[in-house]
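>> received
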Amino acid sequence: MYYPEFRFIYSSARKNGNTTAHVNSFVEQNDVRVICLDDYKIAPYCYDKKHKDDDFYTVFESLLNYEHWVFASPVYWYNTTVQMKSFIDRITDYMDDESLKPKLRSLRKKQFSILSNASSVEAPDIFIDMFKRTFNYLGMTFLNHSHKSYP
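>> returned
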């Protein structure tokens, strides 16, 4: 699959594990930028916004320059990694702040895809649905899902 103007956003407990290999197989075929969330400090969402010194806003705003986002993660207990989940949860910061809402609305013109890997032949529906429901809610259009099974 080829995605013009896209950015990979991935996370994995093993920096050079199966998820990285899966991402790299697409990177080799395309001119693509990659963000490994594990290289950044992203605090969990909290109502009082006492996490101003982390990297979430920088990472999120850099993604706004891309029309297509590809989320890559291993499947851990039917869910994504803690770092990916924190990143997704922190998008709520843009919902809670009137001055940031226009940036959040810009997602309505964007697309997303999912790369997953696990020992199972297919990714569980609940894993895929979490991404689809979250980013469809934000107005993004789902394009594709690619799953790779590793023994």
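>> The CA atoms of residues 57 and 98 lie 15 Å apart.
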